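Work Package 3 (structural annotation) set out to generate three-dimensional models for the target panel prioritized at the project kickoff. During this period the team completed the workflow that converts sequence records into discrete structure tokens, so that structures can be stored uniformly alongside our sequence database. As a representative example, we reproduce one entry of 371 residues exactly as it appears in the project archive.
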Amino acid sequence: MELAQWHDNNRERNVNNRYIILDDIEPLLKKYRTLGELSIAGYSVEDRPIYLFKTGRGPKKVLMWSQMHGNESTTTKAVMDLLALLDQGGEVASAILDHCTIYIIPMLNPDGARAYTRVNANGTDLNRDAAKLSQPESLTLRHVFDTVLPDFCFNLHDQRTIFNTGNAAKPATLSFLSPATDEERNITLPRKKSMEIIAVINNAVQKFIPGQVGRYDDTFNINCVGDSFQSLGVPTLLFESGHFPEDYARDITRKYVFYALVTALQYIAENEVDGTGFNAYFDIPENNKLFFDILIRRFPFKEGGKIQYKDIGILYKEEPGDSKIEFVPYVSETGDLQGFYGHKEFDADDLEADPIEEKRLKTSELLKLFI
């Protein structure tokens, strides 16, 4: 069965939507325990366990971690889908398990996941703590890295809905980065290897999301975990889960993250990754930030007794509710927004909207006119 179809029929259905906490994944890790070894690698600031799941029997070691930022849960869902595939077996699963040993930290920041915040309970961004190692979660990841000595690392994240690919009106549903190893951003061998794998992933997912794969800026920051591990000589891939039309729950995007993970692992399993295919990485367009969640064109405002027409860009703020995330709209920008796009777009010329003073603009009342 083709992987995308397999996912439609067999994905792990006990994790959905955006609010994923430790309570959601602990039963699943125990459910798949027969697939490998489950241990506690460390504890968070608030003393929640940080689990490490080991599976496979091959010589190629892959370390991956998800929810380093607590409010970035799409890759955690995809990792649970990966475990479901490996547990079910089959040709692809056997190839991966025979040639790879996979180490998974499915939730590095369980406190941030509970609070639905980017940072940990001390207010620290763990992806800016690779040099200082000031937090227990950072120390846990580094200890696992130093103990496992992986051949490849997958750094799994989510990105905001603002990202598009190049200058196109296409959302960056997936984005990738081969992090720099130095200020000069030299193309070192570890970078070439991660670039080669990313190029293979891109080629595979383009048949599902053509033009919706982006490439992150590679400015070097030794405080970032990916840059740190890559500079230590281990090929590291940054995965970023982004927006798919109408999929604010990111339960469609998770399928493409799952597909990317399996594609990468199968390629590593079946090939000697030597970096020779790295050039195709640069065919992926760089990310840009040209999207609003809602874009209203030519809305009339009263200014000094005259009517001025301005575009209104609206974004959603994600706020945790009762076991789910509420998407609360707010006006992010007004003015001439030509060159920007909206996941939903409306033209105020099509309505008889009464001009108002910009300072009296209320998002909720505005949206009633259009949605």
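The longest strand covers residues 306-320.
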